[in-house]
């Protein structure tokens, strides 16, 4: 195992009830040290179950979980170098801020001067110096969250698990805490594993994202990978807004949709293979009709602050969503232009494993042809 890998799941299946479908279905992945990972997906997809398995709050039904090369399947939670920040923060309301942060250190029976030093350092780290005597019930949601983080990091874990810790915050505070969490992770240099159903949150904070669906990982990669190269319709729909239309791959770098052929940058599919085309709304440019690759009629328009969100329909009835700084006339016709790089080609229902195998096979064919 590579030294950089701190946690590894190998074909992990989790079933809570023998008569029910597994919550996790043969999940495999590696977690490297010092990075910010996000488990992204809707409720019930298995992301919190993964956190529980890492923390030791649950055991896998099948498969192996290792930490630093050691099998952890039956290792109790209190023997793992892992701490968790829960959605409701799980603070003790009868204890002040200092005592909440110090709780784990007192359980370890550390000496009083050591506890004092470590707690004050943790509070300074989360910008709560001087708040030690404050009652947690008197604090804002963002402050309580930082107390929960201080309580977690004071124990110097190798991995910090965060289970939707921003979901109860209002939009402004949530955005502020995204910056704070990302900065904390980079300053601490420890591994963060963050659970959310919010794709904007995942894209903003992560080094690496696992997109989950029904107990499986649909796709994993950097935020740019996930956004620019979705593996299938599920990921394209879940990560941001997308225009997804059916088409045919004519040949390498040439796709057909809406009755016309367009140059693209994708290759490796069979000639005349059915495909789905993804074009992001921000990659569509409003131009005069004679300059457009698509001719559409504007149906509605909303101002979103930094851009207009414009809904259009082409002659076939296909809807196109456009994000533009230019205002359009509702009911009027406009042209839409896009570069070949804006076209992303997907196979129907393709998984990440199938995608990897196809790329590998295509590379071998190219090498053999040369």
Automatic annotation (TrEMBL):
Keyword Cell membrane carried by entry: yes
Keywords, sorted A to Z: ATP-binding, Cell membrane, Membrane, Nucleotide-binding, Translocase, Transport
Domain ABC transporter: 7-239
CDD domains: ABC_PotA_N
Pfam families: ABC_tran, TOBE_2
PROSITE patterns: ABC_TRANSPORTER_1, ABC_TRANSPORTER_2
Protein name in the entry: Spermidine/putrescine ABC transporter ATP-binding protein
The organism of origin for this protein: Paenibacillus stellifer
UniProt lineage: Bacteria, Bacillati, Bacillota, Bacilli, Bacillales
């Amino acid at each position: 195992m590579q030294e950089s890998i701190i946690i590894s799941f190998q074909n992990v299946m989790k079933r809570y009830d023998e008569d029910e479908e597994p919550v996790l279905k043969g999940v495999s992945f590696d977690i490297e040290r010092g990075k910010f990972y996000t488990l992204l997906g809707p409720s019930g997809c298995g992301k919190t179950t993964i956190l529980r398995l890492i923390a030791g709050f649950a055991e896998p039904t099948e498969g192996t979980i290792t930490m630093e090369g050691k099998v952890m399947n039956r290792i109790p939670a209190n023997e793992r170098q892992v701490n968790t920040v829960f959605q409701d923060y799980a603070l003790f309301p009868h204890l002040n801020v200092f005592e909440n942060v110090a709780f784990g250190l007192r359980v370890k029976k550390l000496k009083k001067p050591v506890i004092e030093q470590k707690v004050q350092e943790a509070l300074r780290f989360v910008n709560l110096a001087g708040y030690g005597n404050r009652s947690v019930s008197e604090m804002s949601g963002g402050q309580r969250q930082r107390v929960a983080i201080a309580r977690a990091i004071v124990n110097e874990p190798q991995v910090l698990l965060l289970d939707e810790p921003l979901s109860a915050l209002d939009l402004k505070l949530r955005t502020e805490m995204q910056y704070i969490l990302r900065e904390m992770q980079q300053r601490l240099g420890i591994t963060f594993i963050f659970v959310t159903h919010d794709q904007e949150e995942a894209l903003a904070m992560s080094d690496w994202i696992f997109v989950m669906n029904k107990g499986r990982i649909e796709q994993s990669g950097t935020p740019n990978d996930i956004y620019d190269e979705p593996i299938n319709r599920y990921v394209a729909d879940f990560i941001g807004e997308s225009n997804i239309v059916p088409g045919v791959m004519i040949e390498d770098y040439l796709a057909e949709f809406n009755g016309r052929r367009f140059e693209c940058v994708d290759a490796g599919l069979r000639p005349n293979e059915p495909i789905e085309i993804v074009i992001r709304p921000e990659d569509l440019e409003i131009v005069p009709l004679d300059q457009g690759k698509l001719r559409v009629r504007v149906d509605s328009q909303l101002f979103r602050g930094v851009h207009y969100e414009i809904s259009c329909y082409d002659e076939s009835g296909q809807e196109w969503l456009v994000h533009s700084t230019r205002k359009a006339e509702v009911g009027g016709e406009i042209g839409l232009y896009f570069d070949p790089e804006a076209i992303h080609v997907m196979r129907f229902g393709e998984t990440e494993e199938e995608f990897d195998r196809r790329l590998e096979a295509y590379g071998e064919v190219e090498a053999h042809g040369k």
